[in-house]
Write a structure and sequence with these properties.
The complex is a heterodimer. By secondary structure, chain A is mostly beta strands. Chain A has strands at 5-7, 10-14, 19-24, 31-37, 43-50, 55-58, 61-66, 71-76, 85-92, 101-102, 106-111. Chain A has no helices and eleven strands. The radius of gyration of chain A is 13 Å and the shape is globular. Chain A starts with a strand and ends with a strand. By secondary structure, chain B is mainly beta. Chain B contains no helices and eleven strands. Chain B has strands at 5-7, 10-13, 19-24, 31-38, 42-50, 53-56, 65-71, 74-79, 88-95, 106-107, 111-115. In chain B, the strands form two sheets. In chain B, strands 2, 4, 5, 6, 9, 10 and 11 form a seven-stranded mixed sheet that branches. Chain B has a four-stranded antiparallel sheet with strand order 1-3-8-7, with no helix packed on it. In chain B, strand 7 (65-71) and strand 8 form a beta hairpin. The radius of gyration of chain B is 14 Å and the shape is globular. Chain B starts with a strand and ends with a strand. The chains are: A mainly beta, B mainly beta. At the A-B interface, strand 4, strand 5, strand 9 and strand 10 of A face strand 4, strand 5, strand 9 and strand 10 of B.
Chain lengths: 112, 116
């Protein structure tokens, strides 16, 4: 079953604009991770936020986590054509390394 | 450094045939995961190993699916006999867990499997 659900399912914006994707989940988590998938490729890890963290930054990425609402958001600032991809949130619930439960993803298109 | 290596990248075979997917994790990683991706069900965890030992295989859909990890640098996922509904992209991922939690997983480029 899906733990994370991304919103929106698809997003099309102009290059240079900011893109925001949201993720909701159902159960308590150890951490939440965001991954990017380009067409025909594997998933690439972007950022991991632990359950006791509220915000994290990495380059043009900003992730927030609200455990009371069981939700997270991924913000990509100053988008580029190369950011076109599918973005997935994934939750890890175990105390140690564990399999991830993925949402169905947001397909982001950056128009030049 | 080499990432997670999967082979073959594409596999087309007829229903009823045995299919074997292969994965070489990143050297030094002690966790290995197998996922399946379909349009309908998204990404699903099938099974994962820690130090070559299967930890959780509750995601394996049927007895037709089996996975092994004979050593730290190699794992296989086998489907026998294969069915058209097994068509999907199968991903292998590895992570450096050990005593640490909160470690990212590193994915291979997947095997696109088509069962005719």
């Amino acid at each position: 079953s899906q733990q994370g659900e991304e919103d929106p399912q698809a997003l099309s914006i102009q290059e240079g604009e900011n893109a925001t994707m949201n993720c909701s989940y159902k159960t308590s988590i150890n951490n939440l991770q965001w991954y990017r998938q380009n067409s025909g490729r594997g998933l690439v890890h972007l950022i991991l936020i632990r359950s006791n963290e509220r915000e994290k930054h990495s380059g043009r990425l900003r992730v927030t986590l609200d455990t009371s609402k069981k939700s997270s958001s991924l913000l990509i600032t100053a988008s580029r054509a190369a950011d076109t991809a599918s973005y997935f949130c994934a939750t890890e619930t175990g105390g140690g390394a564990d399999g991830l439960t993925f949402g169905k993803g947001t397909h982001l298109i950056i128009q030049p | 450094d080499a990432g997670v290596i999967q082979s073959p990248r594409h596999e087309v075979t007829e229903m009823g045939q045995e299919v074997t997917l292969r994965c070489k994790p990143i050297s030094g990683h002690d966790y290995l995961f197998w996922y399946r991706q379909t349009m309908m069900r998204g990404l699903e965890l099938l099974i994962y190993f820690n130090n070559n030992v299967p930890i959780d295989d509750s995601g394996m859909p049927e007895d037709r699916f089996s996975a092994k990890m004979p050593n730290a640098s190699f794992s296989t996922l086998k489907i026998q006999p294969s069915e058209p509904r097994d068509s999907a992209v199968y991903f292998c991922a590895s992570s450096n867990g050990g005593e640490l939690s909160n470690q990212p997983q590193h994915f291979g480029d997947g095997t696109r499997l088509s069962i005719l």
